[in-house]
Amino acid sequence: MTTTSPKKILIVNGAATFNGHGGTLNMHYSEFAAEVLRGLGHSVEVTTVDRDFDPAEEAAKVVEADAIIMQFAGWWIFLVLGIAGIIGTVLISDILISSLLGVFSFSSFWTIKEIFEQRERVLKGWFPMNPKRKHEYE
């Protein structure tokens, strides 16, 4: 059996109140991963993106981490598409296709941000609330 030295692991918990759900499944997955990894002797820090945080402190955690686990919900597909697009941008030599993939990647990442910000816009009264989701804004 091979043993490894303990690693410093950062778990980015994407649990967020979204679409009527409280992010409990993501929270469970993140807590379970942290518990298992700590049981294996690793140092684990968990950051929840739906909470206030200090950007400088979070950047330091990323730099210090040996591994980063990103646990996100339904918008994870945009993360995958964004990363795939960036990889394609680097690997494709045609400047036009590479540029288009870069724009596509940025748009995918931006969509994740927009999903979260739309709720805030509704709460501020900038956009009408969907009557079917009234319970999300109470």
Describe this structure in words.
The chain is of the alpha/beta class and 138 residues long. A three-stranded parallel beta sheet has the order 2-1-3, with helices on both faces. It contains four helices and three strands.
Beta content: 5-15%
H and E order: EHEHEHH
Range of helix content:
40-55%
Main beta-sheet annotation: 3 strands, parallel
For the largest sheet, list the strands in their spatial order.
Answer: 2-1-3
Give the overall shape: flat
Number of strands: 3
SS summary, helix count: 4
Question: How many angstroms does the end-to-end distance come to?
Answer: 54 Å
Overall pLDDT, averaged?
Answer: 82
Radius of gyration computed on alpha carbons = 18 Å
Oligomer: single chain
Q: Which spans of ≥5 residues are poorly predicted at pLDDT below 50? A: none
Decide which structural class fits the backbone. alpha/beta
Keywords summarizing the entry:
138 residues; 3-stranded parallel β-sheet; 4 helices; alpha/beta
Layout of strands and helices, then pairs:
Elements: E1 8-13, H1 24-39, E2 43-48, H2 55-64, E3 67-71, H3 76-91, H4 95-124
Parallel strand pairs: 1-2, 1-3
Helix pairs in contact: 3-4
